[in-house]
Amino acid sequence: MLSHLFNLAGSSNPPDLSRLDPSGVRNILIVRQHNQLGDMLCSVPLFAAIRKKYPESHITLVASPINYEILFSDINPFIDKVITYRKATLKELADFYSELRHHDYQIGIVPSTVSVSRTSHFINYLSGAVARVGAKSIDGKENKVEYLLNIKKDFSWEPRKLHQIDRNLEVGALIGCTLTTEESMNVHIHLSRSETDFARSFVRENFGDSYTRIVSVHPGAGKAPNRWSPSNFVKLMKQISDRVSAGFLITSGKIDKPVTDEVCEGLKSAGLNFTVLENTPIRKVAAVIKETDIYITNDTGTMHVAGGVDANVVSLFGPTHGYEWAPRGPGKICIQSPSADINDISVEQVLESSLKLLETVPDKSSN
Fold this sequence. Notes:
By secondary structure, the protein is an alpha/beta fold.
């Protein structure tokens, strides 16, 4: 059945670009089914650029079940529908592709900026999209399924040290979907009223009026090399406490528990009060982070979430590149290790940056 659908898919010949006039584009497909949260959130400005170019089109996003929640379509101004893709039986996959083909997509985009997913390209191709947009190669690495695209380009991003947001936008620019720098900086995750109410209630119940500052930290990360030492986080929080009246919040997911437990034990020994927000839906976590004064975090998914809600962020980078992944804009400080070892970032350096950022935040006692 899948082979039958494959034979029905559109031609690989370049489409007539005049057919991409906004007045004639009714349906657009974006395929981003990877499960890396950072990759997905760095794509959001691209979604905004597509909406800007095609304001009346129905835009569908294919995402992983893991990333569905953060892009919940009921409050997303850029995406009309989110379809989750997961490994399934042959019949279920055939039904998935058949459902895609009923939407008559004029444009299908695969915004590959890190690695190439064969699955994403086949989803896009089998949707029947007339114009299929993506990367022919990435920094010299060939896209072995580029033949499934008919609007494509060889991209060279690493020599320019281009941020992932800008890489996504360069893919969109192939069909005229662009944003100004200011527009790009102003693209944020939209929170619902219930999510912001939850966050304000959480902060009020856990911190009240006892502190002039609320400092949130995320000591965990999915990849061990991205984790600044738990002892460093404890030392940092102790030194912040010595200088300002601060309440501390620790965010933690299931994979972060061993690291979080170690930090909590250190804080107890240091006599510091703190609150842990753990195993909470990511959008509620985002809303709580937004309510705190600064967020000090390793390079991990919640770092991108904090940037997405325009929180004040101090981000720490070791083997990965801050110029490529760090949150950007006012209230954002990126600290890059001088080596691939994140623990070559000193506590003093993070303390100085954190205090500097706190100085720009209005004192809660004055509200």
